[in-house]
Amino acid sequence: MELKSTHSSPVLADPAPINKTRLGILSTLSSSKCIPVPRRKPGKLDEALSNGWLDAMKASSPPRKKLIKGYSVEVALDDAETAYCSWKIKHPSALKSMQQITKRAKNKKIAIFLDYDGTLSPIVDNPDDALMSSEMRLAVKNVAEFFPTTIISGRSRDKVHKLVGLTELYYAGSHGMDIMGPVGVTASIDHHGCVKLTDRQGEESKQYQPAGEFLQMIDKVFRTLVEKTKGIRGTIVENNKFCASVHYRNVDEKNWRTIARLVHNLLKDYPHLQITHGRKVLEIRPVVDWDKGKAVEFLLDSLGFTNQADVLPIYIGDDRTDEDAFKMLGKKKCGVGILVSSVPKETKAFYSLRDPSEVMEFLKSLVAWKKMEDA
Ligand SMILES: O=P(O)(O)OC[C@H]1O[C@H](O[C@H]2O[C@H](CO)[C@@H](O)[C@H](O)[C@H]2O)[C@H](O)[C@@H](O)[C@@H]1O
């Protein structure tokens, strides 16, 4: 499938070069036209902490843990079931709303966007253990046979590609800052917030700005964080290429403030980096006007799915960073946002699914519906 884009990234000073241009052959791109990268506003540690870091860290806690085959897996409390049921009145099950969704999908081009952790794989203590089942892999493979499908993850593109293991998909790693289609053309955002393109062989082709500095900066931050957190038991620092992730899931809660302080202090030296919060993880990423929502827009444009009237993007995700995509779909009134959660959560998604196993059932139902339609 051809990967095209008419999307004019808001981070580009001159959107013209990317217009009506096939990714990978952007020979008209200029390297000098780039708006300055916004800097994070400086703030005092206490302000930052009281303004929500610690609160946010606590709020990203799972409701309770239960041991399943040696992993602690997030599950909803029985006594929270009532609250969950009333939340679902506002965010109905996508599985139970299949008829409503397929009615909207009829005669439309569907594009599927799937988050990885917590959506295709269950949340577990060790990020390396977050494997998707072979049944899920088959469900994703089948869905991709009918609809262009993107995996959009906070993990690095390489890592999530390896975990999913399907070559026929689009992959958007580092929260959408590193995109690659099945044809092998990649678009990533450099430290100036500019799009950089890489061709099938992995060689850099027509790039908008040199990308080296940004990768180095994240890599340096990653290494510093590994060094600084090695005394804090349970901390895991992950290098996600355009993002460094500090996991505190396995850290004693009394040490969370130390982690927050440490990350805050480090960021004083990096005004072009900022923090976002995920599920028991602090994600250090560039201050660029790019998120999963922008990546979805970019991919839809790349696919030539620009006419909102005959396109239906379906986005399934479980985390805060997925809210940017839900928000974008809501604003454009053009898609189906599905939050994966077994507990009530504030969300811009309209529908919900309880856990990855329901995600799998939903994907299977979508394929079954499409087969019936085509028959
Ligand atoms: O956008 P996603 O695909 O959802 O990635 C977000 C982060 O997911 C991973 O961390 C989360 O899942 C881990 C494994 O279940 C869990 O241990 C951790 O607490 C969660 O935050 C991944 O490790 C991160 O790099 C991603 O940024």
From TrEMBL:
Q: Which GO terms describe its molecular function?
A: trehalose-phosphatase activity
Which EC number applies? Answer: 3.1.3.12
- State if Nucleotidyltransferase is listed as a keyword: no
The record's section on Pfam families has: Trehalose_PPase (PF02358)
**SUPFAM superfamilies in UniProt:** HAD-like (SSF56784)
Q: Does the keyword Hydrolase apply?
A: yes
Tell me the Gene Ontology biological-process terms attached to this UniProt entry: trehalose biosynthetic process
Catalytic reactions on record: alpha,alpha-trehalose 6-phosphate + H2O = alpha,alpha-trehalose + phosphate
Cofactor dependence: a divalent metal cation
Question: What role does this protein play?
Answer: Removes the phosphate from trehalose 6-phosphate to produce free trehalose. Trehalose accumulation in plant may improve abiotic stress tolerance.
Q: Which family does it belong to?
A: Belongs to the trehalose phosphatase family.
What's the protein here called?
Trehalose 6-phosphate phosphatase
- Source species: Rhodamnia argentea
Q: State the encoding gene.
A: LOC115746491
